[in-house]
Amino acid sequence: MPRAEPIRVVVTGAAGQIAYSLLFSIAKGDVFGKDQPIILILLDIPPMLPVLDGVVMELQDCALPLLREVIPTDKVEVGFKDIDAAILVGSMPRKEGMERKDLLKANVAIFKTQGQALDKYAKKTVKVLVVGNPANTNCLIASKSAPSIPKENFSCLTRLDHNRACSQVAMRCGVSSDKVKNVIIWGNHSSTQYPDVHHAKVNVSGSEVSAYDAVKNDAWLRGDFISTVQLRGAAVIKARKLSSAMSAAKAICDHMRDIWFGTKEGEFISMGVYAAGNSYGIPEDLIYSFPIQIKNKTWKVVDGLPINDFSRAKMDATAAELVEERDTAMDFLSQ
Ligand SMILES: NC(=O)c1ccc[n+]([C@@H]2O[C@H](COP(=O)([O-])OP(=O)(O)OC[C@H]3O[C@@H](n4cnc5c(N)ncnc54)[C@H](O)[C@@H]3O)[C@@H](O)[C@H]2O)c1
Fold first, then answer.
1. Would you state the pLDDT for residue 100?
2. How far is CA 131 from CA 111, 296, 325, in A?
3. Which residues bind substrate (predicted)?
4. What does the pLDDT read at residue 101?
5. Which atom number of ligand 1 is nearest to the Cα of residue 18?
């Protein structure tokens, strides 16, 4: 029987399609542990409240022992009250004919409000994962709007890109995806991201070799591999007429579970974090995806990996996009 006190976890965009795949995994203990009771708070906008009622009914009907309570709400003061973890999935989607700037403006407004609510109502130890796009910049805005919560408590999702990269290499080598480790997603969760396998290892028939030696096709690794990962989200939308949801939910679980329980010894994963103090020459005031190790709920960037010219150019290009996005967002934030 689970004995721990329940933790409070909010998921925003809880009536949406990612949440529909995500909530079950959280509620059954895949993220915070099999003996950790949970109070799930589902936040969405007022028109979605009837849909949330349906989601609540389904969660109840799953009869999950760890799930102590489900609270649907459209109010941030209810949604963020005393929470231990926040998974911010809800954001303004791009609509037909909408300019990039207008989309950013709408999302700055959402993540400013939610950041302020975190600041006011959440526990100061809350771990905040931003998923809603543009995830890196939304995360930066939320953090800047929550000055009483440590910057290190904020991160954004690039684990889906990381998992995509692992899987592409694994399929190419004919091994299962758990045989591939230490791929890196650098930068923005956008098509400028840089999936890098220069430091990745593949376990082939029991011995660990570099990804380049395992794949034996440098042209593919420097070409189609990178563009496949960069454009995978668009490929899924084209095929499914909906954006990635099952795989996004799985990646969210991987990301948050690693924050809670740490990464495996000798392995690193990718997540978007504050660039302050990084050793890779990335501008400081950005949420940028790095190779990360986590211990005792504290992450650190894996420093000192050698970077060649090919990688340098791609890391700088994605940083430049983030700087531009940040500057536009900061203009909106100050308005
Ligand atoms: N970082 C990543 O790897 C990654 C991967 C996949 C999708 N995404 C992004 O995740 C987001 C959600 O995707 P989805 O497929 O679930 O979308 P969806 O449209 O199915 O659901 C989004 C939900 O968010 C809600 N919402 C909008 N504004 C809100 C607000 N202010 N507060 C609370 N809820 C709000 C909507 O009402 C809707 O129910 C999108 O921005 C998508 O681009 C990110």
1. 78
2. 11, 23, 16
3. 94, 100, 133, 164
4. 84
5. 16
Catalytic site positions: 189
Which residues are bridge partners to 208 per DSSP? 203
- State the Cα–Cα distance between residues 89 and 92, nearest whole angstrom: 10
Contact 255, 271 (CB under 8 A): yes
| pLDDT for 3 | 62
Q: Whose CA is nearest to atom 19 of ligand 1?
A: 16
Q: Tell me: the pLDDT tens digits for 263-305?
A: 999 999 999 999 999 999 999 999 999 999 999 999 999 999 9
Mutate to test the pocket of ligand 1, among 21, 22, 45, 325 (most ligand atoms within 8 A of CB): 45
Q: Is the distance from CB of 239 to CB of 247 less than 8 angstroms? A: no
Residue intervals in the chain for CATH 3.90.110.10: 159-325
CATH of 159-325, one of 3.50.50.60, 3.90.110.10, 3.60.20.10, 3.30.1330.40: 3.90.110.10
The residues of the chain scoring below 50 in pLDDT are: 2
The atom number, within ligand 1, closest to the CA of 93 reads: 41
What is the pTM for the complete model shown?
0.97
